[in-house]
Amino acid sequence: MPLLKDGLTYLREHRLRPTLRKVVRTYVVSRQRLLVVHIDMVENTKRPLHMDGCEVRRASPDDPLAGAFPHLTPSTLRKWLRADHFFYVLVRGGSLAGYRCLSMKAPPSVRGFFKLRSHQLFVVDHFIRPELRRLGLSRIMQFAMAHDVVARGFSEAFAVVTPTNYDEILSGPRRGVMRIGTLVRTCRLGRVRFALTPVMALSSELILRQLAVLKQAVPQVAHAGVLFNPTAVAPPTETQEGATGGITLLPVRDAVDQVRKLDEAFVAGRDAGIQGLIVLSDPMMKEYRRVIVRLVERLHIPAIYDAREFVAAGGLMSYGAPPPCFADIESTMAYRDAGKTVDHPSPDARAPRLDVNRKGAAALGLTLPFASNGTVAC
C-alpha cells in the first residue's frame, strides 16, 4: 500500500496522468473518420468554370511553394513537380492559397486500402485556411484540372477527406462528387486498421421483412419507427416511402453529445405513437448499441435490429445480413447500385439470419413462435 500511494503521488505531482490519458486515447482507442469520394473527371470537363477571382495553374519550381506550404518536404515537392503528377496551385489575391496534386499512387497511409488502376488517380489537396474549402475553391480546382487530366488518359480520381459537415457530404452527388462511404481509421498501438462503411439506401423490402418478423413476434404492433443514421443511410425515395407506408422515420446524426441526440430521436418516436422499432445499424449505431437497447427498454416497446451485436447487448431480436466488408475501392464500385448510392442488401441477397434474445423476450412477456437461429418465412 505505501508503494501504491507513493506511485499515485508521483503521478499527481508530475502531471503524468493527462499524458497517460492522451497516449491511451491516441494509440489505443483513437478513431478517425474519413470520407471516401469518387470523382468522375470526364463529367467535370462538361461543367462551366467560374473562377471567382482565382487562378488555377500547374505548379512550377519558381513558385514559393516551401514558403506557402511549409509542411511539404523538399523530397515531396521534387516528386510532385515531375511530369507523372498533376500538381496544380490556386492563386488568390496574388498569393498561393492552396494546391491539389493528383498522383498515380496512393500515399502509404492508405495504400493498403486503395488499389488504383491505370486510369485512376488519388487526390491530395490543401488550403492555407480551412474556410477556403467551404467557399467551393476545391471544386474550382477540380473542374480546372479536368481537361488536362482527361487528355492524359485518366478518367477517375479518389479523394479522402475528414467529414466535418454532414449536410455538405449528403449533397455531394448533386455537385458531381459521388460519395463512396466513410472510412474509419483506427490506430491501436501503432497499427492502423481501416474499415469502409458504404453509403446504403433504405431498402423498403428489407424494412417490410423486418416489420413482418416483428409483427409475427408481437401481433399488436401496427405502427413502427425506423431508427437510422442519414449520414450512412441515404433517405428513401418517394416510391420507397409509399411502399413503407405507416412507418415513421427517425433519423439521428453523428453528434458530439450522441446520447442526447439518440434520446431526442426516441422522444420523437414516442410522440409519433410508435408501437415497435426497427434499427438499421452503422458504425455509430453499433458503438452506442447499449444506449439504444437501454432507451428501447425504457419505452417498453419491442425492437428488431439488423445486426447481431444488438442482441448480444440485450436487444430482443435481429434480422438481416450486414453489408459486405470491402477490401478495396474496386469491390465497392462493383457493389454500387445503378444510382449514386450503395444499395442496402435485401434479405434474399446474403442469407439473412434471425437471432432472438430469449431472456429479453421473456422480460417482455412474449412467446416467440420461431427458433432462435432460424429464418422466418414472411
Structure in words:
- Strand 7 and strand 8 form a beta hairpin.
- This protein is α/β, with parallel strands linked by helices and 378 residues long.
- It contains 16 helices and 17 strands.
- Strands 2-3-4-5-6-1-7-8 form an 8-stranded mixed beta sheet. The chain has a 6-stranded mixed beta sheet with strand order 12-10-13-14-15-17, sandwiched between helices. The protein has a 3-stranded parallel beta sheet with strand order 11-9-16, with no helix packed on it.
Strand content: 25-35%
Outline, from the CA principal axes? globular
Distance between the termini: 63 Å
Biggest sheet overview: 8 strands, mixed
DSSP helix count?
A: 16
- Derived structural class: alpha/beta
Identify the strand order in the major beta sheet: 2-3-4-5-6-1-7-8
Average pLDDT level: 77
Radius of gyration: 25 Å
Q: How many strands?
A: 17
